[in-house]
Amino acid sequence: MPLSIVYYAKEFFRGEWARKFLAAKTAPLVTPTYFRNYPELTGKTCTHHLFCMMACPAPGAIDVVRTPEGWMPRIHVGHCIRCGLCVEACPNGVLRSGRILESMFYDNTKLSFSFRIDVDTERCMGCGNCAVACPVNKLIDSQMSHGGRASTDDLLLKVNEGKCQVLHVEKCTGCKTCEHHCPNEAIHVARLLEAVHAPEDEL
Amino acid sequence: MTVLQSLKNFVRSKSIHVAYVDVGSCNGCDIEVLACLAPRYDIEQYGIFVHNNPREADVLLVIGAYTPGWEGKLEGLWEKIPDPKVAIAIGNCPISGCLFNRPHTLVDPPVAKHIPIAAQVPGCPPRPTEILSAILSVAPTVFKDYEVRK
Description:
The complex is a heterodimer.
Chain A: H1 2-12, H2 15-22, E1 40-41, H3 51-55, E2 62-67, E3 70-75, H4 85-89, E4 95-96, H5 100-107, E5 109-119, H6 129-133, H7 135-140, E6 157-160, E7 163-166, H8 177-181, E8 187-197
Antiparallel strand pairs in A: 1-4, 2-3, 5-8, 6-7
Chain B: H1 2-13, E1 16-22, H2 28-37, E2 48-50, E3 59-63, H3 73-80, E4 86-90, H4 93-96, E5 119-121, H5 128-142
Helix pairs in contact in B: 2-5
């Protein structure tokens, strides 16, 4: 009996026991490496396609800003929901988060954007604001007159016979500038985001 | 007296009592707070106790984007908590409104407009470890200099 009391007392006065008794029992939990955290920059060059901003479901979570080194996506903590869609949508792999880029590489999948422009011919007045404002048109024909009329047919948008006409929808970058400049809400840009398996341009 | 008081404050900072309130979220952050109580994260081994009673709380976890139904009620709840007290915003909603903060919605984020917020844990939802480390990092500052005679 007295021996066991001594035994217990010896056990309790060990420093290791006291530390174990007072401190947290489980090991400190570390964030696993595959955790999809806030997207980080990989160092690749951003080409300002803005697909990350288009794919982002959270308001104000990502924007692309111009820095002395070039365009750079910026994540806003407190808005970002860590869904990783910007990482998948980026055509250049500028962002990195968890294992998203690796799994995209192994599964050979990709998120691809395509754009469709719908012109409501009953509302269109043929003012040509959309065609003049369009930044793609500006690159092709910088001399375009204020009415949206032009001699070339390489344009994305053009006013033909008093109505806006979409000529090359594949040139659209989905910026929606035409939609914002339309006074009559006649033109609408649809951004179609689809997950593609084994994209043909990589085969 | 000061030594005794600082010893009391040290002991108090080792037993933090937590109440949480959801002012209009999607319940995702509530589930993450619940996961802190589960054996995997086991919040009580760090001396943090969840009573969910503002009268005996030190730390208030605010979850959600502040819907109109909480006007006045959250402030009243904050006044019920005895000093010293801090509030921690859990998740994106109390910080920015997250996905709910769109035009023509009635939510009124950030919660910092309505009650003073000491710490923010961003994420949608935040990891339980992030919630845990936020409470643990705020805990020493809650009772710092409390009732210490100058």
